[in-house]
Amino acid sequence: SETGRVLLGIKKRGFGEGKLNGFGGKVEAGETPVEGAARELCEESGLEVRADQLRLCGRLLYEYDSRPKVMEVHVFDIREGWQGQPVETEEMRPVWMPEASLPLADMWADDVYWLPQYLAGDLTIPFIGRFRFKGHEGEDSKVILDYSVGAAPAAA
Hints:
The protein is mostly beta strands and 156 residues long. Helices cover 12% and strands 32% of the residues. It contains two helices and seven strands. The protein has helices at residues 33-45, 115-119, and strands at residues 5-11, 20-21, 54-64, 71-78, 92-98, 127-133, 144-151. It has a four-stranded mixed β-sheet. A three-stranded antiparallel β-sheet has the order 2-1-5, with no helix packed on it. Strand 3 (54-64) and strand 4 (71-78) form a beta hairpin. The longest helix has 13 residues, at 33-45.
């Protein structure tokens, strides 16, 4: 970004509690991923953005040996502007972080393989990442068994 900062949130409850993360969550019935991203950003940080202000940057696929289902995450950024100021919610405590010195030890273990590269403009957009973790909780959530990150294949 122009300011060299990125807004992240400390997860206060549920899956990923205690980790520094981006904002987001489950897509609701009848919602597209971009509509869900805009809604979740508002619910978790108080910032308002229209779906057409978001840019799809990539997809991340997560497998956990402790869970049967692959989790798919869509990564968006804001093309231009937002309304409001970040506020703490029941789910997240927003914090501005310097892009050049992210506290990666406080984040999901996969972030080191894609987030700094994306923020620096070194990752082709759209990108795709695949990560297989030993587990989804505790120390097992820090163990990546296999991963790949790169440019997403062109749509047919």
